[in-house]
Write a structure and sequence with these properties.
There is one protein chain. This protein is of the alpha+beta class. The protein contains 10 helices and 12 strands. Strands 1, 2, 3, 4, 5, 6, 7, 8, 9, 10, 11 and 12 form a 12-stranded mixed sheet that branches. A hairpin with a 2-residue loop joins β2 and β3. α2 packs antiparallel against α6 and α4 crosses α8.
């Protein structure tokens, strides 16, 4: 699938009103090091030029193109429709097209889906449930301590991510990616150690415009999981976010389609917060055509057939 890159200078791109984190030029460079190619293009909509950053990834075994705008930022329907049509025009075969997290879509070029995200407000005091508080105390009693990844620990983090990815069937973080994230103004790498050894870490995105932090990528050792390190690290990230003036912590999407997703959802919900349902415009592009109905069939097959089989293989 080939999408033309238009000549958009950095200043124009970074000043665009819809950038959020996902539309920041630096985020595209983080994606590039992660192995997800950023694609930048522009649209003529209503007599004005709109700059957009997308990313190439995969939807199970299928290629995909995603555009994230930022949960709280508005996108007119005509722009979302134009983005879907532009993406479809670059497809040479069946490709998932998705415009994420826009609030007022009613359907046009694609199928509108609700996307639940767990958001923890930092305006008051975050309130984990009883079980999560117990696990946090157990981690502290076991000697688990939170810190931040240093230059000398990046290679160790890469090895941990590679082992974690191979074991759980997920994409690992390269050393180049961790170096970029470590130096980036958009990210911070939190760690947890046990006996002086890193047993887990998480890359958190920082949105200094909307004053939000985002849970993004993590890796754990078996020792860290057994010592409740994920509970402690998540709690420390939430506290750090509040102490540094951020208003919300975005824990990411919630899904219940498979047992694995349900377990992750229960973990996230145990920290409190609220589910917000944002809208996502989705379709399938095939040889330049936009075919919304085909998305429903592929989505059903992916979540009800492919993912349950994939999760069972990881057990």
């Amino acid at each position: 699938m080939d999408m033309p890159d238009f000549d958009i200078d950095r200043a124009t791109f970074e000043q665009h009103r819809m950038k959020g984190v996902s539309q920041d030029w630096e985020f595209g460079e983080l994606l590039r090091e992660w192995g997800s190619e950023p694609v930048r293009f522009s649209l003529e909509v209503g007599g004005r030029r709109v700059a957009v950053q997308a990313r190439r990834e995969s939807f199970g075994p299928m290629p995909a193109m995603y555009v994230g705008i930022g949960h709280e930022l508005q996108m007119p329907q005509e722009i979302a429709d134009s983005i879907i049509r532009t993406l479809a025009g670059g497809c040479s075969g069946p490709t998932i097209l998705q415009v994420d997290c826009v609030n007022q879509l009613h359907g046009g070029s694609g199928v509108v889906y609700q996307v639940p995200q767990l958001i923890i407000s930092l305006q008051g005091e975050p309130n984990p449930n009883k079980k999560r508080r117990q696990n946090i105390r157990k981690a502290i009693a076991a000697g688990v301590a939170q810190g931040f990844m240093s230059d000398s620990e990046l290679e160790m983090g890469h090895r941990m991510s590679k082992e974690f990815g191979e074991k759980h069937g997920i994409k690992s973080m390269s050393l180049a990616f961790l170096k970029r994230a470590h130096a980036s103004r958009l990210a911070k790498i939190f760690t947890v150690k046990l006996g002086g050894e890193i047993v887990g870490f998480e890359v958190v995105l920082l949105d200094k415009e909307l004053l939000k932090t985002y849970s993004w990528l993590a890796a754990w050792t078996d020792k860290g999981l057994e010592a409740n390190a994920p509970s402690l690290l998540t709690w420390e990230i939430i506290k750090w976010s509040k102490q540094n003036g951020f208003r919300e912590f975005d824990f990411g999407g919630i899904g219940f389609e498979t047992e694995k997703k349900r377990n992750i959802a229960f973990f996230k919900e145990s920290f409190g917060g609220e589910l917000r349902h944002y809208r996502s415009l989705k379709s399938v592009g095939v040889y330049g055509m936009d075919i919304p109905a085909l998305y429903r069939l592929i989505d059903f097959s992916y979540h009800r057939i492919y993912m349950p089989m994939h999760d069972r293989r990881q057990v």
